Amino acid sequence: NRRPAANSVVRPDFKFEDLGIGGLDKEFSDIFRRAFASRIVPPGLAEKIGIQHVRGILLYGPPGTGKTLIARQIGKMLNAREPKVINGPEVLNKYVGQSEENIRKLFADAEKEQKEKGDDSELHIIIFDELDAVCKQRGSGAGGGTGVGDSVVNQLLSKLDGVEQLNNILLIGMTNRKDMIDEALLRAGRLEVHMEISLPDEHGRQQILTIHTAKMRENGKLAADVDLAELAHLTRNFSGAELMGLVKSSTSFALQRHIKGGSVAALTDDVGDMQIRMEDFLRALEEVHPLFGVSEEDLE
Ligand code: ATP
């Protein structure tokens, strides 16, 4: 029952449907194959065929499409440790003067564990959100002329290159601007697997809406007239996060109707007979708009 977790083990109870990710099954399985398949190979076989694990991936695409969600769920699925999350702008602002130290710290636990446990070390996932922020002005004094961006990128490079023996690290960089990412970071052995996570198509939108209304449905709070297929059709260019916003907004309309009908005091734990109806979603559609807009043409 030895668990070679620098390799890792997919949880036996794993089901894609349980991950709460809508519309990204193809992306998810591609990332899995390209970046993680090597980690579920038994160590003996891995040695025989000289498998090198991928240590860095880049997820890119518009905001709110589920990049962070995927990164976190991959960690859960592989039974990895709770990922460490770091954010580009935060690094630039907060850590002026000590950015290198902070990057070093991010990798320290994994390094220590690898030394102590070798191949029995767990997989450590580091999520670097808004990676473009530290890359933007590399070479021209990043971070508003402080040069912090430079040193963060350099430190990342040195950590990624230095982890020759570190099989237990996976760095997941995320960005809305792949064009801003320093090319040096994208080379083989660094953030070498690149995956675009784009806006969901109609089918994906319906799945996302289904996920974000699941609790309401379970508790009988979703009226029978709510047509998620129709809503998916009407929400072209909505990201996952915007669809979640739509559900929130429609809930607020349903609550408003309920409060008007009775009194605020009438809101008990089960919110009485409140139900979210199709009309609430349609009103919400007038209030929540996608970042990338919807044209009349889109709705034909
Ligand atoms: P950013 O580029 O702004 O960091 P992101 O792509 O990392 O955005 P997330 O943080 O993963 O986006 O998405 C925000 C929230 O929107 C998620 O926590 C989730 O609730 C919802 N969401 C986004 N995409 C999906 C999806 N494909 N399926 C289900 N929920 C989603």
Automatic annotation (TrEMBL):
GO terms for cellular component: Golgi stack. It is found in: Cytoplasm. Residues 53-201 form the AAA+ ATPase domain. GO terms for biological process: Golgi to plasma membrane protein transport; intra-Golgi vesicle-mediated transport; SNARE complex disassembly. GO terms for molecular function: ATP binding; ATP hydrolysis activity. Keywords: ATP-binding, Cytoplasm, ER-Golgi transport, Hydrolase, Nucleotide-binding, Protein transport, Repeat, Transport. Its main location: cytoplasm. Required for vesicle-mediated transport. Catalyzes the fusion of transport vesicles within the Golgi cisternae. Is also required for transport from the endoplasmic reticulum to the Golgi stack. Seems to function as a fusion protein required for the delivery of cargo proteins to all compartments of the Golgi stack independent of vesicle origin. Belongs to the AAA ATPase family. This is Vesicular-fusion protein SEC18. It comes from Recurvomyces mirabilis. The chain holds residues 267 to 566 of 809 of the full protein.
